[in-house]
Specification:
This protein is mostly helical and 84 residues long. It has one domain (5-83): Up-down Bundle (Methane Monooxygenase Hydroxylase, Chain G, domain 1), CATH 1.20.58. 81% of the residues lie in helices and 0% in strands. It has helices at 5-37, 44-60, 66-83. Helix 1 runs antiparallel to helix 2 (44-60) and helix 2 packs antiparallel against helix 3 (66-83). The chain is elongated, with a radius of gyration of 17 Å.
Amino acid sequence: MANIKSQKKRILTNAKATARNRATKSEVRTRIKNAVDTIGTDDNPEALRLAVKRLDMASAKRVIHPNTAARKKSRLMKKINASK
């Protein structure tokens, strides 16, 4: 354990940020999975919209790299368009 006060604070804030980032990444994965699972159903447009929204929010907060978000959105759109 650190002895320096500022380092103790950094440990706490890093733990909070890590938990927040982990939750965001998990939600992004869940939303993408839901969008893929609903391909061909009536729920697909809504699931797709939520997945894209979460990807954009995660990249805006720099939880994931913007290029990663763009790549995931592109691959998701390709899957959906291929199913039509």
